[in-house]
Amino acid sequence: MSNEESNRERGARLLIVGPPGSGKGTQATFIADAFGVPAISTGDIFRHHITNQTELGVRVKAIVDAGDYVPDDLTNELVADRLSEPDAAKGFLLDGYPRTLDQVRFLDELLASDGKLEAVIRLTADQDELVRRLTHRAHEQGRADDTEDAIRHRQNVYAKQTAPILDVYRERGLLVEVDGIGSVDEVAARIREALASRGIGVVGDTAAA
Ligand code: ADP
């Protein structure tokens, strides 16, 4: 059996949390691939609906454009639908959800019947470093609207809104904190090691034993 098949059997149920600019989306794809589970990003799903001008997309466009949160009932319903798809039956990596305490409660109920979360990966990063990265990227992409102030504002909103969620998962002993500053490969290796040290590992990885 290949590693990927073994991990599919194992059925990892993971969340990843990280501030804007932390490279969370890239890492989400890496980890999900390693575990053979789908990476489910609520941000990507909303953007997909907006691009395709679906009924949901039309409804949420103004909210997402403004950088505000889509109402919990809409977001929760979307995630429930996505997690009921066959590819998520044996595991998943959720990226960008839950973002509010109401969403945490909803996810708890959703998972109550068929298996709990194994870990919540938190990418940490120095705020000044993230602001530097994002202003650099905005500059390169000619996004003059993405000012340092706007970027700092988003960081602050993230810090304020995710802090209570992290507290919940920390109390449950699920929080796995990983330094998010470094190359994509370095950070991916750190995540792998941190998960392995908790017994959540790619089969064949001795650190998982
Ligand atoms: P970021 O740029 O912070 O990585 P995402 O790509 O995860 O953001 O999400 C983009 C947008 O989609 C958010 O600003 C928000 O409007 C909406 N969104 C995504 N996930 C959620 C969620 N869990 N609850 C409410 N709104 C969400």
What does this structure look like?
With 209 residues, the protein is of the alpha/beta class. The protein has one domain (3-35, 89-204): Rossmann fold (3-Layer(aba) Sandwich). Helix content is 56%, strand content 11%. The protein contains 9 helices and 5 strands; from the N terminus they run H-E-H-E-H-H-H-E-H-E-H-H-E-H. The model is unreliable at 1-8 (pLDDT under 50). The protein binds adenosine-5'-diphosphate (ADP). Adenosine-5'-diphosphate (ADP) binds next to helix 3 and helix 4.
Q: What is the CATH homology-level superfamily?
A: P-loop containing nucleotide triphosphate hydrolases
Question: What is the strand arrangement across the widest sheet?
Answer: 2-3-1-4-5
Characterize the overall form. Answer: globular
Given helix and strand content, the structural type is alpha/beta
> Which compounds are bound in this model?
adenosine-5'-diphosphate
Termini gap = 18 Å
Oligomer: single chain
Provide the CATH top-level class: Alpha Beta
Structurally, how many domains make up the residues? 1
Q: Which structural traits does this protein have?
A:
209 residues; alpha/beta; Rossmann fold; 5-stranded parallel sheet; 5 strands; binds adenosine-5'-diphosphate
SSE arrangement:
Blueprint: H1 3-10, E1 13-17, H2 24-35, E2 39-41, H3 42-51, H4 55-65, H5 72-83, E3 92-95, H6 101-112, E4 119-124, H7 127-140, H8 148-171, E5 175-179, H9 184-196
Parallel strand pairs: 1-3, 1-4, 2-3, 4-5
This protein binds adenosine-5'-diphosphate.
Describe this structure in a few short sentences.
The protein has helices at 3-10, 24-35, 42-51, 55-65, 72-83, 101-112, 127-140, 148-171, 184-196, and strands at 13-17, 39-41, 92-95, 119-124, 175-179. It is α/β, with parallel strands linked by helices and 209 residues long. Helix 2 crosses helix 9 (184-196) and helix 5 (72-83) packs parallel to helix 6 (101-112).
